[in-house]
Design brief:
Blueprint lengths: L1 E7 L3 E8 L5 E8 L7 E5 L6 E4 L5 H12 L13 E8 L10 E2 L2 H9 L5 H17 L5 E5 L9 H4 L5 H7 L8 H15 L8 E6 L3 E7 L2 E5 L21 H10 L3 H10 L2 H6 L5 H9 L3 H25 L4 E5 L6 H9 L11 H5 L7 E3 L8 E5 L3 H14 L30 E3 L2
Parallel strand pairs: 1-6, 6-8, 9-12, 12-14, 13-15
Antiparallel strand pairs: 1-2, 2-3, 3-4, 4-5, 7-8, 9-10, 10-11, 13-14
Length: 435
């Protein structure tokens, strides 16, 4: 039997079909520009040429129907029928205070997610649309919600309560929740394996560096602070989100430009960050390369991004106590090595040394690599994240009745004999240490 994972954004749907244990990826794909016109599907199966289909998906319901049709298609699919799908895992952006771990979706759970929409309207609305559509397409199998916020439920109140009227927290749920939970969970468990220590003894800083960016301070295996807040808007500089700014800017610019609250939210979420500084809509790989090629505003944006990340690392060293490791997700393209160098430059005051040659000669984005320099008191890893595996294993845990707080759950990737799926064809290269 197989597990299908679904992640829905406003205008995009990502999907993966995995083996029942989650370790083998059978098919994956994306539908872009949902509801915008000119939408298209990209579908990949290991060992085959990628398939692209121009389509016209007006909403998530038609998108999910196309995904199912593609998976069972005689030419491009990988299964004979939907009966081979045993469960669906849905990535859900926000679980509020109600969900500390993944949960099987029923009417009560779905209504609870609907009630949380005010905390993340740009994310939960498409998440809900995807759940509803998938449950129509696949009505006879279990559907499970995996919450981006759940991993951070261990934060102490001093880290998650904002200095605002306390009744806002009590009555409206205004607090720090954090996001990218599956990614930070996976990175921390893999780092513990590479360190040769039980996760409950590890102090780490994990950095999810992609279109969205977040950092997590992990003490004794638990999230104790994270850069994103009540919404994914707070924190580090991102591709289109501003991250931390003076909240007085909001009201000032709303008055100056006569913007509504909704219009201001659009600017902060979709027209700020790297895109705001550069004035260009670039993917991350092209942005970093443009900065290295000398584009003045791209160079400035990169300097701002890496400066802010450095500040967070310094703060989180103080939070975690003696630090075992800093963990970066792998970025696309060789230029990401420069990003890591810029972030870590000057942190030798913490006894941190980077192996610059090793960092620059990483051969694959899909390797787990150590880039610790000689004499460093803190180890440095670059690890490809695998959120889909976390989702699949959480689905299996929920359905078997053993899902619990993440520190107590026995994930397969917490063991020495686990081979990351991206490198499984060559086990000897799955973990490469560069001294």
């Amino acid at each position: 039997m197989k597990i299908l994972t679904i992640t829905c954004w406003s205008h995009r749907i990502n999907y993966y079909l995995l083996s029942s244990d989650g370790r083998a990826m059978l098919a994956s794909g994306t539908i872009e520009r949902v509801g915008l016109g000119g939408s298209f599907l990209r579908h990949s199966v290991p060992g085959r040429e990628p398939f692209r289909l121009e389509t016209d998906n007006n909403d998530h319901h038609s998108g999910l129907a196309l995904i199912i049709a593609t998976l069972v298609d005689p030419e491009h699919g990988v299964i004979a029928g939907t009966s081979e799908i045993s469960a669906v895992g849905h990535r859900v952006a926000h679980g509020g205070k109600k969900f500390r771990h993944s949960a099987q979706i029923n009417d009560h759970v779905l209504n609870a997610i609907r009630e949380l929409q005010g905390l993340a309207p740009q994310h939960l609305a498409p998440n809900i649309a995807g759940i509803e559509a998938a449950m129509i397409q696949l009505p006879s199998i279990p559907h499970v919600a995996i919450f981006d916020t759940a991993f951070h439920g261990s934060m102490p109140q001093c880290a998650c309560i904002y200095p605002l009227p306390y009744e806002w927290y009590e009555n409206y749920g205004v607090r720090r929740y954090g996001f990218h939970g599956p990614s930070h969970l996976y990175l921390s468990r893999r780092a513990a394996v590479l360190l040769g220590k039980p996760i409950e003894t590890c102090n780490l800083i994990t950095i999810h560096l992609d279109r969205g960016v977040s950092l997590c301070a992990i003490r004794d295996g638990l999230s104790v602070d994270t850069s994103m807040g009540m919404t994914p808007l707070e924190g580090a500089v991102m591709m289109t989100r501003c991250g931390d700014i003076d909240p007085g800017i909001h009201s000032y610019m709303m008055r100056v430009l006569n913007l509504s609250a909704k219009e201001m939210e659009q600017v902060l979420n979709n027209r700020s960050g790297i895109s705001g500084i550069t004035g260009r809509q670039l993917d991350r790989q092209h942005f970093v390369q443009a900065a290295l090629d000398g584009s003045p505003r791209c160079k400035l944006a990169l300097e701002i991004e890496t400066y802010r990340l450095k500040k967070y690392i310094g703060a989180y060293v103080a939070i975690t106590g003696p630090l075992d490791a800093i963990v970066f997700t792998t970025g696309r393209g060789a230029a990401e090595a420069t990003v890591r160098e810029m972030v870590l430059d000057g942190l030798d005051c913490f006894g941190l040394r980077l192996d610059r040659d090793g960092n620059r000669t990483i051969r694959s984005e899909q390797q787990e690599v150590e880039i610790t320099g000689e004499g460093s008191r803190i180890r440095i890893f670059v690890i490809p994240t695998n959120e889909e595996l976390v989702i699949a294993e959480d689905v299996a845990a929920v359905l078997s009745g053993v899902c619990s707080e993440n520190l107590n759950y026995d994930y397969s990737f917490s063991y020495d004999d686990f081979v990351p799926s991206v490198s499984r064809e060559n086990k000897d290269d799955a973990i490469k240490k560069i001294v």
